[in-house]
Amino acid sequence: MKKVLAIVLVAFFTVFASAETGYDLWLRYKPVENKTLLNSCRTLLQQINLKGNSATIQIIKEELTRASQGMLKLSPSFINNQNTNSGLLIGVANYIYGNGNNSIILDSIGQEGYIISSKTVKTKQLTTITANTEIGLLYGVSHLLRLMQTEQSISNLNILSAPKLKLRLLNHWDNLNRTVERGYAGFSIWDWHKLPGYIDKRYIDYARANASIGINGTVLTNVNANATILTAPYLQKVKALADVFRPYGIKVYLTARFSAPIEIGGLKTADPLDKDVQNWWKQKAKEIYSLIPDFGGFLVKANSEGQPGPQDYKRTHADGANMLADAVAPYNGVVIWRAFVYAAENPVDRHKQAYDDFVPLDGQFKSNIMVQVKNGAIDFMPREPFHPLFGAMPKTPLMMEFQITQEYTGQGTSLVYLAPMYKEVLGSDTYCKGKGSTVSNVIDGSIDNHSLTGMAGVSNIGNDINWCGHPFAQANWYAYGRLCWDYSLGSDAIAEEWLQMTFTNNKTFVNAAKSLMLQSRETMVDYMNPLGLHHIMGTGHHYGPAPWVSDLSRPEWNPAYYHKADSTGIGFNRTVTGSKAITQYHPDARKQWENTNTTDEKYLLWFHHVAWGYKMKSGRTLWDELCYKYYSGTEKVKQMQNTWNNLKQFVDAERYLQVKQLLGIQYDEAEWWRNACLLYFQTFSKKPIPVIYEQPGRTLEYYKNLKFPFAPGN
């Protein structure tokens, strides 16, 4: 009996020890299986020429050692011999080339780019990774290791890579009590209570993961800000994190509560034109930079959703931003001012309010200010047309704000790959300087000659063991970082990379799982918000459908405000006969949406109120098309389940079961969205759900009575 028990325990602990928790993200460094590549990699990494002993150089050595041991079962040796003629040579430009050589190429890669090149010296292969800075070397090493992880050839390399955007930030909506607004992966990873004395290993692994995809900044705190973060004890905690992140090329930023001079400074006002207020912020900036010399700057949400701001004192957003810009300017800091503003007192279409507030201020912001604009004008909807501010403020650098966390795209239970959504927005044509003036060219500064450029992503990271809750939610963090570095990358290529590094290089698995990922966003749109419907989710927690809500105190918080269903039809008329929001777009851009007959049907109900009997391109009526979309979207989730079930043999048991269970929840939620929305809209259309579909098994009242008082992220 004891022998049997021992065998069982050994088996149990063997499985447990080798279980895939997801903690390693895309840096698993599993053994290379391709024998030819394995030999090439071993030859390359056996002896590495790398000069220096800075913190960043030590990080490069540790990562190369970790990767070599994991992928190649090899512990590399590091030497310092500039004249080596084989293996891997890593060094900043003047070490590799000497001063003054290759200056044109080196200028083109800037401070963060890198060059990876191969050449044959006396029949031996020499690969060099060159950059102008050590951080560039770290990025270059990450690229080389990615090639190895995805089992691509490392021979005859000729790679020149530089980021298309200067600031590539994660925005953490983390509160000081460790709750995370719109967080679906546990509590905040920042343990403020134990800082600065205790440095959790997770902080280091967070930095490793971000550096591997080129993210170079992190905003540690919620945009619904707490002034406590700016007090002396908390700044010591921030300093501790900044010291961890610095060698990885990551700067820290903080959200600034506009009323901080009152709340922690003892002043009677926060008026940005008040001299005492201006001086308070200057002294606060001096204090921060004395602790953190490379502090990135402030992110500010002001006069939005109840947050204090300059308009409280009858000042403009430019007045508020400029005051903070003056405070951080001596230290090369930046101010990122969010354009997500709307007011209950303003009766106009919420779609229009940010444009109305900010376009008149174009040219009034100081040179170290960026205006951060959400991808669409409402609020991170599953599908939105691009924000009309893109292309409308040529004198002001605009920063893209995407949501990585899935607030409106299934939260923590749904497999929804967001790269196609990011690409859809970035590739949209604003026509601001003629055809081809894409959103990506607005934010990269090329259209209006801005040097301050960037993108921000609202984080999906928590203290769940796998960081992101849903195993596939990691892909959105990864895709965001890759697109920050190079927005021309394809959604399919990024998905393939992530799958290979996160699961396996097996082609059968990768092809099937990639197809599943690429269709997932469109599937979710079909069963949640088809044909341009938007903002019809549950209020407060935003979990599940609630298109019937119409009794909240602020009109724009009510789902009924957005779909405007009545006996004649459904949809928000934003044309010149309605709210006129369409006029905020360039005439050549809005042409595509002005007429119901020419509007892409995926935006139809975003811009038009359409009759229930309107004939769609499919030949179906609008009502029947809505039914088709809701039912086909739900059916596609079932197909996603079948695809995943067929991939069991390629996936470790732990993650296979996690995803299987979550897809089951997703199917239930798709049915919930479908049934609740169609039963509700049916009260207006007075039309039956076609008999070819399974009829809802519950009443509308059942769905209306569902409550979720403890939904995460609320």
- Supply Rg: 27 Å
Q: What is the averaged pLDDT score?
A: 95
User: How is the largest sheet built, in terms of strand order?
Assistant: 7-8-9-10-11-12-13-14
Count of helical stretches: 23
Distance between the first and last residues' Cα: 52 Å
The SS-based structural class is alpha/beta
> How much helical structure, as a percent, in the residues?
25-40%
Unreliable residue runs: 10-17
Descriptive key words:
about 40% helix, six-stranded mixed β-sheet, alpha/beta, eight-stranded parallel beta barrel, about 725 residues
Record the SSE blueprint:
Layout: H1 2-17, H2 35-45, E1 47-50, H3 55-72, E2 77-79, E3 87-92, H4 93-96, H5 103-109, E4 114-121, E5 124-131, H6 134-149, E6 158-161, E7 167-171, H7 201-212, E8 217-219, H8 232-245, E9 251-255, H9 260-263, H10 275-291, E10 297-300, H11 317-328, E11 334-338, H12 350-358, E12 369-374, E13 398-403, H13 419-426, H14 439-443, E14 454-458, H15 474-485, H16 491-502, H17 507-528, H18 560-563, E15 569-570, H19 587-590, H20 604-607, E16 610-611, H21 622-645, H22 653-685, H23 700-704
Parallel strand pairs: 1-2, 1-3, 3-5, 7-8, 7-14, 8-9, 9-10, 10-11, 11-12, 12-13, 13-14
Antiparallel strand pairs: 4-5, 4-6, 15-16
Helix pairs in contact: 2-3, 3-6, 10-11, 15-16, 16-17, 17-21, 21-22
